[in-house]
Specification:
Order of helices and strands: HHEEEEHHEEEHEHEEEEEEEE
Number of helices: 6
Distance between the termini: 68 Å
Largest sheet: 7 strands, mixed
Helix content: 25-40%
Shape: elongated
Structural class: alpha+beta
Number of domains: 1
C-alpha cells in the first residue's frame, strides 16, 4: 500500500483554490442579472443610506424674481451591516494516508467533490439570504423598510407624516388583481402629495406555481424564457421572473417592480466565498475554511415595489 504525505495533501487542497474562488464568483455573478435585486460589489463593511422622498417648491416667478432653491427631502436613515458566512471541508488522515492503493487519485477526487459541494452550499446560503428580502417581506421579521414597517404593507413618509401609502394586497394573481395594481400605480403620489405614477416593468413569482402560470398567460404567452441560473425570464409586456428561491410557503405570492426607479432592495457583496489557507489539525486532518461577506437590506421607501400574499 502506498501512502502520501501531509505536504502532498496540503498541496492538493491549495491546488483547487483558484478554480474554487473563480467558480464561486462566476456562480454568484450569474444571479446579478436576475432583475430582482440590486446586486453590487462593495468595500464597505457597513453603509448608511438616507431614503429620499420628494422635491417641491416650484412656483410662478415674476420677471425679475430669483427661482427658489429646491432640495430633495431626506427621509429615514438606514444602516446596512455586513454579515460573514461560510463553511469548511476536512480531509481526514486515513483518506490521504491509508485508504486504498492509489492515494493520490483518491485525494484529488475527494477534494474536488468536497469543493464542488462547498460551492453549492455557499451559493444556496447566499441566495436564501437574498430572497429573504421577499420571503420575509410581509412579516418584517428580518428585514424592514426604512420606516420600520414590513417591506410590503402600510408606509408613512418621514417628511409628511400625514402622507401614507400601502404597497400590499392579498389578491390572488388575476386580470382583476392586475387592474387594481395598475390603478394603484397610476394614482401614486409622493411624500409631498405630488402625482408620481408608477410603471410596472417586472412581475416576480414562484417558479412552477399557479401564480407563475397565470403570469405567463397574462404577460408572456408563447414567449420562450431566458435562463439566469435557476431563474427564468419571460420578456413579454411585463418581464415575468420565475424563481425557485421564493419558498413553498410563499408560492401564492407575487411581486411587481418598477425598474425605472433605483431598486430599494439591495444585496452588497463584500467578498465572494473564498477558500482560505488549509490548516493541519492536531489529529492530522486538514481543514479548509471558506468564508465570504455580504449585506442585505431595504434602503429606500419601497414605493418601487408592490406585493401580494395571494391569500385571498
Amino acid at each position: 500500500m502506498s501512502t502520501i504525505s501531509t505536504d502532498y495533501a496540503l498541496q492538493a487542497v491549495k491546488g483547487i483554490k483558484e478554480d474554487f474562488d473563480n467558480s464561486a464568483k462566476e456562480s454568484l455573478n450569474i444571479y446579478q442579472d436576475n432583475q430582482i435585486f440590486d446586486f453590487y460589489q462593495t468595500d464597505e463593511v457597513f453603509e448608511i443610506y438616507t431614503s429620499t422622498e420628494s422635491m417641491g417648491g416650484v412656483k410662478e416667478l415674476t420677471n425679475t424674481e430669483e427661482p427658489p432653491i429646491l432640495n430633495l427631502e431626506e427621509g429615514y436613515s438606514v444602516q446596512v451591516s455586513e454579515i460573514r458566512f461560510g463553511g469548511a471541508i476536512v480531509l481526514d488522515e486515513p483518506t490521504y494516508r491509508r485508504n486504498k492503493i492509489d492515494s493520490t487519485m483518491k485525494v484529488d477526487s475527494y477534494v474536488a467533490k468536497q469543493a464542488a459541494g462547498l460551492i453549492r452550499a455557499n451559493i444556496k446560503y447566499f441566495l436564501t439570504k437574498s430572497f429573504l428580502l421577499l420571503n420575509d417581506s410581509f412579516t418584517g421579521t428580518t428585514y424592514k423598510a426604512p420606516d420600520g414597517n414590513a417591506i410590503f404593507g402600510e408606509h408613512e413618509w418621514k417628511t409628511t407624516n400625514a402622507a401614507k401609502f400601502n404597497n400590499s394586497t392579498d389578491a390572488v394573481l388575476s386580470e382583476a388583481a392586475m387592474d387594481e395594481a395598475w390603478e394603484y400605480a397610476g394614482s401614486f403620489k409622493d411624500a409631498a402629495g405630488i402625482e408620481s405614477p408608477l410603471n410596472w416593468t417586472h412581475i416576480i413569482v414562484k417558479k412552477g406555481s399557479a401564480a407563475a402560470r397565470t403570469a405567463r398567460k397574462l404577460f408572456a404567452e408563447s414567449i420562450s424564457p431566458v435562463a439566469v441560473g435557476d431563474i427564468n425570464l419571460y420578456q413579454g409586456t411585463l418581464t415575468v421572473v420565475e424563481t425557485p428561491f421564493i419558498t413553498d410557503a410563499n408560492k401564492t405570492c407575487w411581486f411587481l417592480r418598477d425598474a425605472s426607479y433605483d431598486n430599494s432592495l439591495k444585496v452588497g457583496i463584500g467578498e465572494y466565498p473564498t477558500m482560505r489557507e488549509p490548516i493541519v489539525l492536531e489529529n492530522e486532518a486538514i481543514r479548509t475554511n471558506v468564508t465570504g461577506f455580504a449585506k442585505f437590506g431595504c434602503v429606500n421607501m419601497p414605493f418601487d415595489w408592490y406585493g401580494s400574499t395571494g391569500a385571498a
